[in-house]
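User: Need the bound-state model for zinc ion:
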Amino acid sequence: MRKKAETRNVPITSLENSVLELYGLDQNAVESLSSTNLGDLVIINVTLKPDYPPCPRCGHEHPNVCNYVDETITHSILHNCRCQINYHARRYKCPVCNRTWYEFNPFVFKQRISVSTVVCVLEEMRDPAVTFTSVAKRYNLACDCSAHLRRSCPDPQSDDASPRAAA
Ligand SMILES: [Zn+2]
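Assistant: Bound-state model below.
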């Protein structure tokens, strides 16, 4: 008898590596990366290494790390399992002018949807038979959110089949 495939048994280390690959992140750019498998939800915890960018207001070149803010990003690397990135976003503070700002966030496109999720959603929506609702459900997104993506990011590979495209 054939053994039933364990679709949910995702090897965590390869998942972590694929997250790095997807976002074009080098191992050296990452301070810590770990993941927790909660059965139907995989949580990936990530902290990037500090790069101490100059102050955007006064240009001072030696900012301090102010604090960390946890940001949750819906991530759809897996179709059969919900995946969430808990990104520990670092905030800097300028000792001269007291300006605070976030480090560059390589994970989000808009409003906590990961870049790779956006790519997947747009790819699926090229099929005219696919509805926003079904895609949104599959990627654990709010429906209006997917529609917004579609409006704000026309697919560059589109063959202009849509009647609106030529307007
Ligand atoms: Zn400053």
